[in-house]
From TrEMBL, chain A:
Its main location: cytoplasm. GO terms for cellular component: cytoplasm; integrator complex. It comes from Henosepilachna vigintioctopunctata. It is found in: Cytoplasm; Nucleus. InterPro entries: Beta_Casp (IPR022712), Integrator_9su (IPR027074), IntS9-like_C (IPR048660), Metallo-B-lactamas (IPR001279), RibonucZ/Hydroxyglut_hydro (IPR036866). Belongs to the metallo-beta-lactamase superfamily. RNA-metabolizing metallo-beta-lactamase-like family. INTS9 subfamily. It comes from the Eukaryota. Residues 303-432 form the Beta-Casp domain. This is Beta-Casp domain-containing protein.
TrEMBL record, chain B:
InterPro entries: Beta_Casp, INTS11-like_MBL-fold, IntS11_C, MBL, Metallo-B-lactamas, RibonucZ/Hydroxyglut_hydro, RMMBL. Belongs to the metallo-beta-lactamase superfamily. RNA-metabolizing metallo-beta-lactamase-like family. INTS11 subfamily. Gene3D superfamilies: 3.40.50.10890, Ribonuclease Z/Hydroxyacylglutathione hydrolase-like. Its main location: cytoplasm. GO terms for molecular function: hydrolase activity; metal ion binding; RNA endonuclease activity. This is Integrator complex subunit 11. SUPFAM superfamilies: Metallo-hydrolase/oxidoreductase. Its cofactor is Zn(2+). One of its GO terms (biological process) is RNA 3'-end processing. It is found in: Cytoplasm; Nucleus. Residues 16-210 form the Metallo-beta-lactamase domain. The keyword ATP-binding does not apply. Keywords: Cytoplasm, Hydrolase, Metal-binding, Nucleus, Zinc.
Amino acid sequence: MKLYCLSNDPNKPCHILTFREITMMLDCGLSMQSVLNFLPLSYVPSNRLLNLPTFMPNDVDPDLEGELKENGDRIFVDSPPEFCPPLDKLVDFAQIDVILISNYLCMMALPFVTEGTGFKGRVYATEPTLQMGRLLLEELVSYIELCPKANIAFQWKSFLHKLPYPLSDSFKPKSWKQIFNLSSVNASLSRVQMVGYNEKIDVFGALQVIPASSGYCLGSTNWVISSDHEKIVYLSGSSTLTTHPKPMDHNALKNADIFIMTDLTQTPISNPDSMLGVLCVVVSLTLRGGGNVLIPCYPTGVVYDLFECLSIKMQDLGVAQCPMYFVSPVSDISLAYSNILAEWLSSAKQNKVYVPDEPFPHAMLVKNSRLKHFKYIHSSGFSTEFQEPCVVFCGHPSLRFGDVVQFMELWGNNPRNCIVFTEPDFDYIEALAPYQPLQMKVAHCAIDTSLNFTQANKLIRDLKPTTLVIPECYTQPPNAAPNVSDYIIETNNERNLITYKWGEVINLPLKRKQAQVYLDNSVAQKIMPIEIKNGLFLSTITGSLSVKDNMHNIQDLAASALGRTQNYVKYEWGSVNITEFMQKLYQEGFTDAKLETIGTNSYMIHMLEADTIIQLDDNNTHVLCNRDDIIRTKIRNVLMQCLRNF
Amino acid sequence: MPDIKLTPLGAGQDVGRSCILLSMGGKNIMLDCGMHMGYNDERRFPDFTYITQDGPLTPFIDCVIISHFHLDHCGALPYMSEMVGYTGPIYMTHPTKAIAPILLEDMRKVSVEKKGEQNFFTSQMIKDCMKKVIAVTLHQSVMVDKDIEIKAYYAGHVLGAAMFWVRVGSQSIVYTGDYNMTPDRHLGAAWIDKCKPNVLISEATYATTIRDSKRCRERDFLKKVHECVDKGGKVLIPVFALGRAQELCILLETYWERMNLKAPIYFALGLTEKANNYYKMFITWTNQKIRKTFVQRNMFDFKHIKPFDRQFIDNPGPMVVFATPGMLHAGLSLQIFKKWAPNENNMLIMPGFCVQGTVGHKILNGAKKVEFENRQIVEVKMAVEYMSFSAHADAKGIMQLIQYCEPKNVMLVHGEAEKIAFLKDKIEQEFNIKCFNPANGETATIQTPIKIPIDVSLQLLKEEARKFSALPPDPKRRRTLHGVLMIKDNNVTFMDVEEACKEAGINRHIIRFTSTVYINDPGPAVSTAHKLYDIMKEKLSQWTVTFVEGEISVESVMITVEGEEDDHKGVRVTWTNQDEDIGSFVLNLINNMGQ
């Protein structure tokens, strides 16, 4: 059993697991850190961005001219943004049998893996994962396609060593790719087979895969992969906090032989609840001061909780008249879908549909116009509806594309406005770099509900896996807090700990010792157990074996040509008591038997008349008999009386 | 226990009060708990005294499964759980859990408040009963206890309708409830995988019908409504609040829009908006088309269909009215019927099945006069049309489902006796499987082969596989697995003999026999060996006989020829005690050759 690590970002995981000749991809995350190195894409040409000075390191190829721009101390690539897809050198994607998707944030690389690679396998995901994942992919593609760029910069990748930090530190820029198009997205998603929580999925009869609720977002799952006797748990984005999704299912994850854990919190230092509190305060203060609030976000997920909390807080603090705008190409679908996925929600939200009421209050907020949604900033109706001060939710959290770029240009110079970072995926200082110098206030309230290290350590103690497999970085404190040992996964003598990093292939210590067969009733009825010692029985079995879909069935064996079936084969055990044996031989008429001692418990018996020599030791008896079979059978019977069998 | 026992308490060779007791692997499960609309006495509910004469049912029933919210499938549930007494778990899908209590309350009101029935369950009982319900989602595997596993499949029919697969040990059944194999205007078609249950319990409402295309029936329906309205007539369509009603509404709504008709359509139920809300929220249970378009346009926001008021009954001019209940057995639909029936311009369209004993059933059978409890006689002059919109599988659909899931036996319920008998013959002929059709209170006992799962050492399997694949391919060669079963502290493991001895802590004692026989055969030893090899191959055709370096071997039996150029050859045969049969057989064979 092997584990391949194809992603360098533990929060956008992508692994390959091979077991019982099945190749399984665990998650298909797309690392987007690369886009921070690119200039923002604006719907309308921004003079400020166009006029940024060109950057040219000394003595390099003149072809590099125009590829790089400089803002402050940062260098940006002037090109459509590129993404770092999963490593394709270790495994041929055409060989993948199954892809398991844990949540909609871990599937953004799916078109890179399934399209144009010869991939023929199946993709499993829950219904919300598929629907919300589709929204994220469509939004991403539409943001980038709306701002086509004439030139694609690539020369700079050959001169990394001449470029300043952080561009010089870019991770494998030559493997970066342009975004896929919408038809690849559709083709890729059409391969997804929807599954429900606790649905048992059979993989070629060899493995069973079960999705278990992970409590992180709508439809998020952990995966339990098992064969007859082995249990592997793959834990991706999980949360023990109570928000809108169905709570995490702990029971299914217990006592795994192998426990692979990834996608822990990206903000180990901050607590999501207090961050939400800070956010509410910042928003109301800004609105009261007549400023606008910009919240860069994904079109689904925590944003639903933000609508709910903020609307209540704004009411309490008397700024409820300020509208909230939700701008995304998929905003309408996201709001509508979230309210029809009741079966995937927390029981509090679920019970609302029995009334029947919408599970999320945002349907109500839309009805009474406190929340307004638009596809784009340039959609019809937006400019007439738009009133300040207000709160705007829009993408993309990287600030490199999407409507947020326009709002940055619009509001960046006013110190009364405020941008609030809630999504933990991008470093906010890096995200803001191309917009500097900025007048607007910046608040950092990253809300990451996934497991923190304390929760993860407790979880592992409760679930008691035999072997724990984690990314190497979880054994070292994060860069932000290098001296705090709380932010690591504990090591413990009770279990093995194995770490991995990008590009590695790990052997996992799981040796299969047992499998399962199905005994037919007719075979079972012939079992005649013999008690060997107290409570221990043995019985021989022989049956005809049929193997189909990796299932082993044992049926009754027809009688052989010699009239008996092998089912009557018995095995002798124990040692022959030599005195007893000699006596019995004598009684049976072998009066001339002579005993010769060869060594400890090793004897030779000579019987002239029977033309027979018998060699005996503790575990063997050899009868060399050259007379007729009647004599030999007699000796055999005597011997059998002196041994036990089963 | 190698058999499965199935006893219908209702719906055995009948339609109404579906309730089937399933007993397998020592577990008892109740499938559906419906009421019969045709009766007002105790026959209305399934006869639970079959289970126990008195006292609660909890000790005798491990769980209850409800397939969908129609009252003939869940109507007796509060009676069973609150009045007879049952505190165990009840399973149903989320939409069923949401909608069933509303229909139960509706029915309770009609029965108690309108008909003044005594000894009926109360509103509080419905609530208490629903607290015992555990909602399941499609395809989710639910462990009821450590032995019972259930799984729901999409059944079409109505919102939230499900077929249930139930497994105890190695035995399994599928109970279809009501299902529909063709997608309709708002629901998809039933689907099941090849789960190969021991028994498929299928409804057989339309056991003998093969319906014409749905489109024709729809066109027919619209034409008749249109003609009637054109003449200034009134159209009454009795429906249940949820289900068919929504489908017909979608149909009429689009037709009215297309034809630009002005006659009003009413939906006589305060519940309309609420009912449609359920459809909106459980849109994942509707068909592909509605799911795809719901963000842009909600199919259940009707423009032409308005709420009905009782006063409208006597309004002049044409109108179309949807009224509950669907079988004209009580309530508003019956009230409107009494008013409109004597006018030949009016029309009654019955879109669903009517159980025996209801007014609807009488009229559909051609009754021209209907007498009511209070001696009131109503003449039926209005046109009466039966349009089967009821989403049940027809004979073709039932056969299709059998093909999908490949059951080893079929049991038919929820259909009229003769029709079921006809389909039973057809299934037995076509699939060559047994088909059962017990009447209410009769038990169908179905023998099932048992397969016992046991752990096996991988070494044993791999060794067999290695030997098997080392041999030249031969499709007729059977594979055999031989080993030792070890039973220790309730653990049963299958392993090879060496492992077993090691695990048991005993030393195996190997007995070998060697005999030498002298035969006359001139020529080199090798040619003698070859001759022997040919004979062995012929005589021991069931075994694999090999010949390597002058040594012939069959299992553990080894034959070697000694003496080079002599005429007199010694043939040495040696074997272990386990192959005594072959060993002595070979020895005798060679002995006979020597003589």
